[in-house]
Amino acid sequence: MSAEARVHVGCCGFAMARAAYYARFRLVEVQQTFYQPPRPQTLERWRAEAPTDFVFTLKAWQLITHEPASPTYRRLRNPIPARLRDRYGAFRPSEEVYAAWRTSLACARALAAPILVFQSPASFTPGQAHIANLRAFFSRARIEAGELVLAWEPRGWPVELAQSLCDALGLVRVLDPFRDPPPAQGLRYFRLHGGADYGHTYTDAELERLRGWCAGETWCLFNNRTMVADAERFTRLLQGQGN
Known about the structure:
By secondary structure, the protein is α/β, with parallel strands linked by helices. It is built from 9 helices and 8 strands. The longest helix has 18 residues, at 128-145.
């Protein structure tokens, strides 16, 4: 870890009651906004009840990134009509996708979040049609986002292609540093998945490696089954308290 590194540590989702979580961490990546966004009033209440130095990041609504065939659509409050299924997901240039973007943007503003994460499924492959969708979507969203940082987590894309698109579109590339190399410069946003089945507990040696990848401003979001314990161990390591 470089001497000037600023590292933020938290979990992907509230792994316990919110009040208990606020007492243990200063960062969470909200997951509900991916499945079925809560009402803005609900998110404003979360912001108000959290400590003033607590930070929320969040995932964009799945209607932007995932197609209706995704099993995650089962958690929608209102199912997608069959006649409209080809208008959702994959960053399509449709009014339905842009409406979902506006909802996600409203969620980010309600939480005063600095970063909004777009997580692509493995089915969003690096073909020309998908690249065109990305360019069209983020060219518009980047203007409307203002100072909000937009971050994209691709799945299975060549690192060089994903990074070049992020650079061109003003995005932060989200990654798991145990799988893909971090960018050479700029903000780093790590989502730590704990292996293919999310079941891996990070060893002390792995947490040391993670610390070495932290440079500049780095966000470390644990997303494995033992994320609370691992995030707390990593926080102690950063503070020089050992594990």
